[in-house]
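Hypothesis: this fold can be encoded by more than one sequence.
Test: take the structure tokens below, design a sequence, compare later.
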């Protein structure tokens, strides 16, 4: 389910781009070519989320985007709290795309009293007011951007106050109940993954070049 949902995000980005170009209709083959999958995979992903279309006639882009908006509840306001106002938390609190997608960070929290005194667009509260704010704004999702050493303790507190979804930027695997959805975002892992494949590709190309050079020397 998670992989197909990630592909839905890719399809949506592609659809938005095509719409800006003035395209009104799209086929699964086009989406497949744009996102690096097969047309069958596109249709299978759409079917999994009850997104229907005409196999021969294609899909109307506006219709697809409307169905995806309903799928992600983008027509509703989703209140979120952000825990940790270090460099990562500060950057996330200023990310304008959240508001554009109806994701509202209603409050941020930090244990540093100095940060709690800073007045900006989103208030910074002490952790003692966490339950109050979660209850007031009926928050179900939190962003965790705290140091590794305190991540589990904060996650326990969040779930105790009714949070059922956490996006975790701390480099640690959190232990939560099955009812809580966790998405771990480890930037170092992502970078190392890219670096690994870059070097693997370079080594492969280097081996091919040596092989071609050896053949030239033979002749």
């Amino acid at each position: 389910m998670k992989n197909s949902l990630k592909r839905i995000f890719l399809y949506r980005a592609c659809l938005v781009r095509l719409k800006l170009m003035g395209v009104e209709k799209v086929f699964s083959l086009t989406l497949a070519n744009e996102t690096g999958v097969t047309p069958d995979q596109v249709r299978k992903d759409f079917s999994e989320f009850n997104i229907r279309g005409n196999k021969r006639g294609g899909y109307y882009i506006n219709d697809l985007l409307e169905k995806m908006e309903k799928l992600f509840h983008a027509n509703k306001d989703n209140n979120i709290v952000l825990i940790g106002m270090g460099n990562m938390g500060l950057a996330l609190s200023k990310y304008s795309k959240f508001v554009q997608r109806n994701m509202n960070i209603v409050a941020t929290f930090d244990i540093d009293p100095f940060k709690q005194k800073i007045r900006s667009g989103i208030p910074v509260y002490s952790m003692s007011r966490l339950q109050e704010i979660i209850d007031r704004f009926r928050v179900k999702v939190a962003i965790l951007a705290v140091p590794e050493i305190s991540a589990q303790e904060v996650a326990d507190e969040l779930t105790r106050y009714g949070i059922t979804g956490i996006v975790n930027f701390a480099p640690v695997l959190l232990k939560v109940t099955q009812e809580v959805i966790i998405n771990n975002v480890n930037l170092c892992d992502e970078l190392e993954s890219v670096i690994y494949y870059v070097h693997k590709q370079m080594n492969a190309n280097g081996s091919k070049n040596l092989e071609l050079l050896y053949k030239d020397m033979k002749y």
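The chain is about 55% helix and 15% strand. The CA atoms of residues 141 and 165 lie 5 Å apart.
Hypothesis status: open.
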